[in-house]
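re: that complex we talked abt at group meeting.

here r the seqs, copy pasted straight from the sheet so there may be weird spacing, ignore it
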Amino acid sequence: MEMQKLYLLVPMAPLVGAMIAGLFCRVIPRWVAHTATIAGVAIAFVVSVLIFMDVQAGHTFNGTVYTWLTSGDYRFEVGFLIDTLTTTMMLVVTFVSLMVHIYTIGYMQEDPGYNRFFSYISLFTFSMLMLVMSNNFMQLFFGWEAVGLVSYLLIGFWYTRPTAIFANMKAFLVNRVGDFGFILGIGLVLTHFGTLDYATVFAKAPELADTTINLFAGRDWATVSLMTVTCICLFIGAMGKSAQVPLHVWLPDSMEGPTPISALIHAATMVTAGIFMVSRMSPLFELSTAALSFVIVIGAITALFMGFLGIIQNDIKRVVAYSTLSQLGYMTVALGASAYSVAIFHLMTHAFFKALLFLAAGSVIIGMHHDQDIRNMGGLRKYMPITWITSLIGSLALIGTPFLSGFYSKDSIIEAVALSHIPGAGFAYFCVLAGVFVTAFYSFRMYFLVFHGEERFGKADDAHHHEHEGDHDDEEVAHDHHHGLAPGQKPHETPWVVWLPLVLLAIPSVAIGFIAIGPMVFGDYFKGVIFIDHAAHPAMQHLAEHFHGASAMGVHALTTLPFFLALAGVVLSWFFYMKRPDIPAAIQRRFSAIHTLFENKYYFDKFNEAIFAGGARLLGKSLWRGGDVAVIDGLMVNGSAKLVGWISSVTRLFQTGYVYHYAFTMIIGIFVLMTLWINRA
Amino acid sequence: MFDNFVVPNLLPAAPEMFLAVMALAILMIDLTVKDSRRTVTFALTQLTLIGCAAIQFATSTGEITYTFSNMFVDDLMADLLKLFLYMTVLMVLFYSRGYIIDREPMNKGEYYVLALFATLGMMVMISANHFVTIYIGLELLSLSLYAMVAMNRDSVVSSEAAMKYFVLGALASGLLLYGMSMIYGATGTLEITAIAERLYSGGVNKTVLVFGLVFLVGGLAFKLGVVPFHMWIPDVYHGAPTSVTLFISTAPKLAAFAIVMRLLVNGLITMAADWQSMLIILSVLSMAIGNLAAIAQTNLKRMLAYSAISHMGFMLLGIVTGVVGGDARYALNAYSSAMFYVIAYVLMSAGTFGMMLLMARAGFEAEEINDYKGLNKRSPWFAGIMLMLMFSMAGVPFFIGFFAKFSVLQAVVAAGYMWLAIVAVLFSLIGAFYYLRLVKVMYFDQPEDESPLTAPMDVRILISANGLAVALLGIFPQVIMSLCAYALLRSL
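got the structure back, here u go
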């Protein structure tokens, strides 16, 4: 009973904070807004730790808190499922959120929307917690949409910038596509299982494993396995939220939002909701090898091809954004290989080091007075020592340096894929291996360009001529957030509220992998939470046989291929960008076709704009002309409105105002009823 | 001499007795009040209502208790409805106070005392288990209301409305009494539970019974204000001072629901097939005429009068779907959906008329739709509250009005009347037009009068709470829904 109140406190504390900062944002001073929201998130974090310890002691929970609505036999409830998967997510979400809250005090210092921003990020924390703590699909969907909403609001936080509006609209529309698949999946679950409660659905899943459904009534060729369709629909939802090809296009543009939310929402938490969801649904996904194959192929494409794009980006945040896409691809590949625990493990380590990298990028941006172009940086190491060392740690963790957190999770993924036998695993193995090299190359290209080499900032024409890697024409609209350093001005280290979160995030980025890999991936941590059909998908079992402790794994890695690929990536980037900067330019000239392809991001945006956006506009226009104006407006709306208006004016005449007319109507009423019923009796 | 006299159990009727005593006391205390704002009278009236609620809480046992030789019943349904009644009257008087202070002929202590007597009448109706008790309660309510409508005696419109109300009300009382006498003739008793037993054991003349039933339904339909017994509603709503319209449009709906439950469900459930089909006819007619006629109105009070007719028609759908072919499986769901609907409607109606009172000043009634032009520019907060109320009335999700309609429709579909559900939805759709028109006027038209609204703090807070309740209960409808279901479960 006592614990149940604590469970409720976790999402409610940030919600209260968000309400204080949001509803009174015009009247309260700034310190109230940040104190209230930080207190809310801090409470959530502390309570999450308590719950984590309680769950470790064996007290899991699955129950309803409130019945929202009953419709026929269906019940829509708010409930919590508290197990190790939930507590892991709760800890990651509340910890990163707390760091970002503190960081925001420094980052948003000069922004007029200070209170509004705090309200949004606290609201986001609430939504994300509702999503991960849910014990049913409805609440999952609520959290899913709520985080989407806050993400939309935050991408468009600087709503006077046309690029921000374009980006948030794009994120919104692309997520619609994913959510459409997601709700179809939920609908299939409700129809065939008759409930939205996880536990009941999972218990019933094996019975329905061989059920087939017909996509087009009466056609034999359209008969497919129910599980496959359901899982693919659910996964399409995950593709939208977790930005997998081809629904990834919104994530790079989402960098229009302020940097703290890029760290919180678009790197550490929200975008990993899809990964979390698929892991949660492991009892369903395990029943469909076809769906898992689909998952692994999509993940592999995302992991490698999005990594390539990171190489040619010049905006510091966009480099990190493409790196996030690629890492999300890695997690998805792990899901496809049935290595759910590895995916969650990588989700966790990634949350720490990617939030670190984003916040460090933000710190650089502050130091550079909101110039984000890495071509204008260089040699920042001596001006921003704390940012430099934390960035280095983050980058090393990202590329998988042995003993750092990213190494354990990423190597586990690669091993799991190597051992997986499902269709597509061979392709995925190639992609994740090549991805290691690419990751190391673009990470250190950015690192060297920003922190080492020649100081390129403070040159008169560079500071104001800011060339942005955009895909739309109005990119160059003047805005206060793009000014950069004046000639002769030097960057400076950021205040403590900014660098403290960097240091705090650097600690788990280094250590969490070493500590957690044993219990989380190979131990009993996820026992009873994540379900794997070992007979059909034995990869995890084989992987566990090869595991002999975290230190042994680290030492062994020094002789394996991924390590050398990463090392090669680092060395090559050093050679290209520090030693011989003329080579990349030469390559670019030589292979201009590929460069153009990358520059245009494989033409996804152009394709979407031409086919989907253009097609939708064409369809809309013809429906508007033909359907709306002619049939609906002309005939139905105006026609029926005229009819209703006419009847209404006639009805009005009955109300004559004479009391004997009224009495007469009553008598007639009695008379008619009497005649009808006396004859019956 | 008093050998046969047994002192009845007075406890179930304690709130009624307290209210009666207090009403008489306030009548006398008011004579000594010199203050032109009548603060003492007002405060005492409100305290009386709060006292009633407290007594209700203290004496409620949750069991069905009969007293006064089975003429009076106290059960959980009565308790719940009475608590909502006190709350409604309390709210209504708060909203009305400023309005009646501005209008000299109405600013009398009698206004409050009449409101209390009307409340007493409604309480008696809610707890009646006997035809005579119902009639006494009904008359006490009606006579108080006639006087309240006429209270602004310098106004020709008000006097006309009171006259019409009185004449037609007398006719309706006649219908009801005639129906009761017929049923008495057929069954030989006036006690509602006894009638149910007689009918159950059979051997009752069906023709006489149906004869009585038609008249009974006619009388009830008049109280509910459903077509074709609705003609008084637009004229009385329009003619009465707005504060009285507010009163008539809220609390008596609760009492009317109660007597429908007592007479038809408790008493004549064996004849459900007959009265259900009668009420279906009345219900469809009400939704049609109420919604269609409302569109043509330019006066907000008249528009809301027709809206009330359509809402009551909709509410009846919950009552007509209780018994399907002799099967009462869904009865609890159906009746509790109707009860939820009435409570939701009372809440919305109170807010809407409350807003009219808030806008009215001395010499200005704020009863034309055009008076609301550009309200958003004058006072965005109040415009927002009004918007929520209108959305809720129209049944936009997720306001309480949506869930009220939703639960009734669910009962209709469960009972297998698909066509009825479709008809109800279609007319609600037509009805959405006139609610949304007011929203359009508030937000998109230019105001004629730019001055911001002013209102005392207590009314501001109350109306904000009222509006927010409509929104919040839409998010947590289960709170009231489960209360209704539980109360009916323990009372039927």
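couple things i noticed - Chain B touches chain A through 43 residues (CB under 8 Å). DSSP finds 20 helices and two strands in chain B.
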